[in-house]
Amino acid sequence: MAFFVLLHPVMSTIIYPSPIFGPVHSRRLGISLGINLLPADGKVCSFDCIYCECGFNKDHRPTLPFPKREEVAKHLEETLRKMAADGQLPDVLTFAGNGEPTCHPQFAEIIDDTIRLRDQYCPEAKVSVLSNSTFIHRPQVHEALMRVDNNILKLDTIDPTYIQKVDRPNGAYDVHQIIEQMKAFDGHLIIQTMFMRGETEIGSQESVDNTGEEYVGPWLEAVKAIRPQQVMIYTIDRETPAQGLLKATHEQLDAIRDRVIAAGIPCTASY
After folding, report:
1. CB neighbours (10 Å) of residue 120?
2. Which of 67, 84, 167, 220 has the smallest number of Cβ neighbours within 10 A?
3. Nearest alpha carbon to residue 168 among 208, 212, 211
């Protein structure tokens, strides 16, 4: 079965099919069958990150609705049945796509459907959710994330100014509340952090380098307080909607990774 992504004609950023896409090769997760709970023709996200591979929110306003729970289950079962017949099962079923998956009104029920189908067709596969953490305060979202194998939550920094400049949340966002809500998972989470260098001209030309001690030190203290089962650090891999962004170097990522490991927390770096 071929690996693919769908390229949107604007700015070469990626708009994924819905509700199922792939399989794709994930740097961090292996052979991943994607589950996109957002509309197929646009982006819906509570962040508007300047590095997002799906582009800026304003450039991809959807016209289609969210896929319904029954539609997701139907397409997922059809795809898994075909993959099983082809003898190529996924390593992971990953909730990702065009924005924030946990904002779907039936997110918890879809998680239950996915676990049931995983157990039926590919019991060795992991169920993963890539989330920006903005809805983990909702009891149903928290409980659903406790049921998945890989609860992967974003924490790029604990600096509020950097968050507003780079992650650009829509509405109120208190990183200290997010950290407390992450602690409530009692270790059942993986923290995912983007490290990068360069400058952005959005608003004004400013550095977006979060690899220095003023960012890494406080972030590491927060990670130690959260006590995740793992940390995944990574850097830019695809074209970004904002210009002037640069990859963190191998040396920078390795140094951060080694500090996390020295704190007793498993950590991987993707370059």
Report:
1. 12
2. 84
3. 208
CA distance 268 to 144: 25
From 52, 30, 27, select the one nearest 253 (Cα to Cα): 27
CATH architecture of 20-194: Alpha-Beta Barrel (3.20)
Amino acid, single-letter form, for residue 172:
A
- In whole angstroms, give the CA distance from residue 120 to residue 73: 13
d(CA 235, CA 80): 31
Q: Peptide bond before 218: cis, by omega within 30 degrees of 0?
A: no
Of 24 and 37, the one with more pLDDT: 37
Averaged over 230-257, what is the pLDDT? 96
Cα Dmax for the chain: 54
CA distances from 102 to 1, 95, 249, 271 (A): 28, 9, 32, 27
Listed by start position, the domains of the chain span: 20-194
Report the distance separating Cα 155 and Cα 210, nearest Å. 12
